[in-house]
Description:
The complex is a heterodimer of chains A (293) and B (264). Chain A has 293 residues and is mainly alpha-helical.
Amino acid sequence: MRAIFQSKTFAILTILLTLLVIWYVMAVKLNTPWQLGVYERAGTSEWTTSQFINDTLNQKRPVLPSAHQVFSEMYVTIFQKPITSKRSLVYHSWITLSATLLGFAIGTLFGILIAIGITNNKALDRSLMPWVIASQTIPILAIAPMIIVVLNAIGLSGLLPKALISTYLSFFPIVVGMVKGFRSPKNIQLDLMQTYFASPMQIFFKLRWPSALPYLFTSMKVAIAIALVGAIVGELPTGAVAGLGARLLTGSYYGQTVQIWSALFMAAILAASLVMIVGLIEKRVTKNMGLTT
Amino acid sequence: MSNSPVILAKDMSLTFETNDGPVHALKDINLEINEGEFVSFIGPSGCGKTTFLRAIADLEKPTKGEIFVNGMTPSEARKNRAYGYVFQSSALLPWRTVEQNVALPLEITGISKSEKQQHIERTLSMVDLIGFEKKYPHQLSGGMQQRVSIARALAFDAKLLLMDEPFGALDEIVRDHLNRQLLELWAKAKMTICFVTHSIPEAVYLSTKIVVMSPRPGEIADIIDSSLPNERPLEIRESKEFLDIAHRVREGLRASHSYDEENA
């Protein structure tokens, strides 16, 4: 019995159950005023408690939808719609995911290049780093429409502008992490390369790059999660018709809270899976490098 | 070039500019080291022994005077890969296996695969590490790691080996063992070795010449030519000759400064 209480599964289930209980309690509480109004208009004056709770948890446009509403909406929109349908959550997720991955890829590449510049050039270190930091202080919600409009004016539309908003957010942790990573070799290791009369290129590929790899993966985990946020945010102010952001937008136009929440859950699942995939790749790479003890 | 000494320092000084003013790491060093010698540099910390080694290796530049390595300037010597350097810690790259670490300098100069393999086998057998080629550094003991770094330093077949307190972090039993191995290696490979240490027994046991240094500014206090035979079993450390040399080293260290910090 003790073993059960101390097991990991038990702890996870307990937290999950607690969250569900809080969720349902809040759902009943938040949906009560509307439900009372419905009863009043319909002239229902007598109702049992269980009937009342059941009704608050199954409204069409609840303030806070209940868990089973969200999950059944997700089930229907994920599994019971053809993935080409505009009602399929898989379809919308893919739109957002493709922008996320493209933006993340560009952001990672771009971030690594900037970090190489910063670590190899004192002038770049002084001149570029403040801009990199400044770029992150501008609210993405404010700058996203500008990016879309400007890029549209030069003939770029569709996937790329949205991906670039992801890039804008995701290159930052890569720069910060990789600058630290490229500077992580110890003096003694750098001296060693000096005694070999190694070229700067050799020092980079044989020492700096492998030293920086663990930092790259840590940064990539942060970057891929905010790349997803970037793609969703990129869809919001631009009136996108497809993607998780578009689902959030139309959901809020029409008071479809169930739709909003299922899109939010989908986004969370996507983000968690992406971070996990990066983590798995990290494990493989560090294992191949003999870095796991 | 064969008649020129392996190392020749003429009135060499080296001053570091720091925020607290200049630090005279080395002052007016005159030293000649000939082919095949095993020279130890001994002295308290701050006496400039490591700095001198680094100046030979072109990792520091003398601010005054001259120093020649095989008749060349240190930077030419470095370009010619004229020396191997063993650092205080092994400085192995953790993502490389033993053989990959030994291969690192060879990859940088670029040699054929078969030659590389031969080289790895030969140098690893010299430090007695055959069978550990595929291990990663973290799977080895400290003594073994340092042996890998010695094998790595032998990669260029350089006739000059610079060693900066290579066994300082190891326990005495391992150190004795490695000292013996190093002497064997030195005899076999007919190299010149410059060895920084602050252990008197280690210096006396290993060297044909002992350079005693004193700090602030770093100067040579005494140069002792060892009268010990080249064949040195560990027991030699209890012989009268050994103890006499050790005594002279100790005297040199005591006379030159300063454990009594009066000038500090």
